Amino acid sequence: MSIGYRGFKIHPWADSNIQRDIETVHAIGKRVGGKMALMLDPCCVYDTLSDALLVGRACDDENFYWYEDPLRDGGVSIYAHKQLRKMIKTPLLQGEHLHLVETHTDMAIGEATDFWRADPEYDGGITGTMKIAHAAEGFGMDVELHIPGPAQRQCMAAMRNSNFYEM
């Protein structure tokens, strides 16, 4: 079944409970899996690689489209995310807490992400965001824009490698 461009993104509670998050992933997967792209964004709350791995494996079971910024490091550890990426099949989306084209590129070269995140409010405006989009395109990767707004809409309209508008 084609998922088209419909998606459902889950943001767990800030006081994350690993078991509750795993149960939520399975419940949502069973309810709407296969009908839309499912994404999980724990907002950098998991304390350990082991915790992120447990939740990532639940995402694998439910065929999630991506798993975003799981580790408490703020999504900046190239090595930790590369290790997690090796252990799960669900693609990682990194970059909400990385800024400007150089750090995004380092994350891709380090094989620590599958999708990129960019935001004109944090990444050097529309010009900086477009640099990130073009760099991602050079890697054959997609970049998803963070939060809604006029600048984000303008960037997305000018990009060919973006799929979802975050609301």
Can you walk through the features of this model?
It is built from 6 helices and 6 strands. With 167 residues, the protein is of the alpha/beta class. The chain has a 6-stranded parallel sheet with strand order 1-2-3-4-5-6. Strand 1, helix 1 (18-32) and strand 2 form a beta-alpha-beta unit. Helix 1 packs parallel to helix 2 (49-61) and helix 5 runs parallel beside helix 6. The radius of gyration is 15 Å and the shape is globular.
Beta strand % = 5-15%
Determine the mean pLDDT.
Answer: 94
Can you list the strand order of the major beta sheet? 1-2-3-4-5-6
Tell me roughly what share of residues is in helical segments.
40-55%
| Major sheet | 6 strands, parallel
Number of DSSP-assigned strands: 6
Shape: globular
Question: Radius of gyration in whole Å, from Cα?
Answer: 15 Å
Order of helices and strands: EHEHEHEHEHEH
The computed structural class is: alpha/beta
CA(first)-CA(last) distance? 24 Å
Counting H and I runs of at least 4 residues, what is the number of helices? 6
Low-pLDDT runs: none
